[in-house]
Amino acid sequence: MKTEDSATPSGTIAVGPAAGGPARAPVPDAAGGAPGSRSAGRSGTLLAGLGVVAFSLTFPSTAWGLESFGPWSLVALRSLLAAVIAGSVLLVTRVRVPERRHWAGLAVVAGGVVVGFPLLTTLALQTSTTSHAAVVVGLLPLTTAVFASVRTGARQSRTFWIAAVAGAGVVIVFTVLQSGGALSAGDLCLFGALLVCAAGYTEGGRLAKVMPGWQVIGWALILTLPLAVAGTALALPYEPVRLTAHGVTGLVWVAACSTFFGLYVWYRGMAEIGVARASQLQLAQPLLTLVWSYFLLGEGVSAAAPVAAVAVLLCIVATQRTGGAGRGR
Asked: pTM score, two decimals?
């Protein structure tokens, strides 16, 4: 791959100067770019909204995928297919290979959002409903805010942390009540998924200041390719495969749409309209997942699930209005 390419503000790839020519100035990315023109704002909102829709279908699609594949096989195949797509795009667009100093951060992103989060949520969905999981993972923006605060040393207002603690309280009460007074193994997996994904988002947000966000996830996927190949080879012989239309569709969606396309349009949208406006759109993700779970899976959503989702939504809105929380999926 060539190493002289750079990203345009909209996230497309442009061929850079010839070797020895003047270097281009770094282009601001989604981590802190200002909103563009009115037309760019409309397209950015649309792109970020498409990303939220893609993310909201992740849990229902994973439930479908589990109809055909075991949890380990599904996660390995998801990463493998997404890495092939990402590698093809990076190769065709001749994107520069990241500097050596960025690979440690990319490893954190890979471990959090490519391996850890998909694996733990897939294991959780073997015993938890998607509506239940959606409410728990609705805490992800707040969890990311805590990690970002520790990682960067940024200070948040007292109102922000009050809202964050309130949101955490709602989630904990919901999970305990829904599990009969005790946390289940699925809930423990979901809370673990929150931690690893928050770490991956925090490090990815830091890296997005020096390279386009979609390239961050692209290179993170490439980094996990050997692990995905090995995992696929080991898991498939030991887990039964029963191919169904739902199972194949679920696998394709979580790999191509949730893991790659969703993050691609999400980061491009953020680059056009800014982090604050884009993050507000993702607050609807848990509620959208509840809707998909009802229509696609026929899950009976308990009265507590939408109430808890709305409560978490209000708490996250409060944090956004007082300084913002981290990005969520």
From this structure: 0.73
